[in-house]
Automatic annotation (TrEMBL):
InterPro entries: Oxoglu/Fe-dep_dioxygenase_dom, Pro_4_hyd_alph, Pro_4_hyd_alph_FE2OG_OXY
Cofactor(s), names only, from the UniProt record: L-ascorbate
UniProt GO MF annotations: dioxygenase activity; iron ion binding; L-ascorbic acid binding; oxidoreductase activity, acting on paired donors, with incorporation or reduction of molecular oxygen
Domain Fe2OG dioxygenase span(s) in chain numbering: 86-180
Domain of life according to the entry: Bacteria
Record's protein name: 2OG-Fe(II) oxygenase
Pfam family membership, one: 2OG-FeII_Oxy_3
Keywords, ordered alphabetically: Dioxygenase, Iron, Metal-binding, Oxidoreductase, Vitamin C
Organism in which the protein naturally occurs: Sphingomonas naasensis
Length: 183
């Protein structure tokens, strides 16, 4: 039996909840997605091309954060680690045709090892809304996309991963991280 480096929660959100999140993003200004490099975040479309916005925990997004908190708690138990509730802003990402995060990367470098122990990517689009835009996590490269709209994939933040280019349509995703808050 092959052990995959991630956990899937196929019904993390309902289709209606996904549409609510996409509608919230439509009211929020999106900006080019950045990458971390050197001393600051910056735009590099050769590495990552997408649009995104961040949402802190507030009255409008509390339900999303609470749902992610529950997913992270379950994943933490299965990965045998401890995490706090989500304390960083969550990220909405829109990948249009040609958009990607081509470079293999982790969400937690040496400076954020405890702060980011687990990562989550929630599919907000229906599978037939786009081609490409596949979240690949090493070493499970090349697996077919299996999550429906509302499905979440959780993995250790130090796992290297990428998103392949979208070749048709638009992929919307919700991305979040948690771990242990610095004292």
């Amino acid at each position: 039996m092959v052990t995959l480096p991630f956990l899937d929660f196929p019904q993390a959100l309902s289709p209606a909840e996904c549409e609510t999140i996409v509608a919230l993003a439509a009211r929020t200004p999106l900006e080019p997605a950045t990458i971390w490099g050197g001393a600051a975040d910056h735009v590099d479309t050769r590495t990552r091309q997408a649009e995104r916005c961040y949402w802190a925990r507030d009255a409008e997004t509390e339900w999303i954060h609470a749902r992610l908190d529950a997913l992270f708690a379950e994943a933490a138990a299965r990965f045998e680690t401890e995490v706090d509730p989500v304390f960083e802003p969550i990220q909405f990402v829109r990948y249009g045709v040609g958009a990607h995060f081509q470079t293999w990367h982790s969400d937690a470098g040496a400076d954020r090892y405890d702060e980011r122990r687990l990562s989550a990517s929630v599919e907000l689009s229906r599978p037939d809304d786009h081609d490409g835009g596949v979240l690949e996590i090493a070493p499970a490269i090349g697996l077919a996309r299996t999550l429906p709209q509302g499905g979440a994939r959780l993995f250790r933040s130090r796992m290297i991963h990428r998103v392949t280019p979208v070749t048709r349509g638009t992929r919307h995703a919700l991305v979040a991280w948690t771990g242990k808050r610095r004292a």
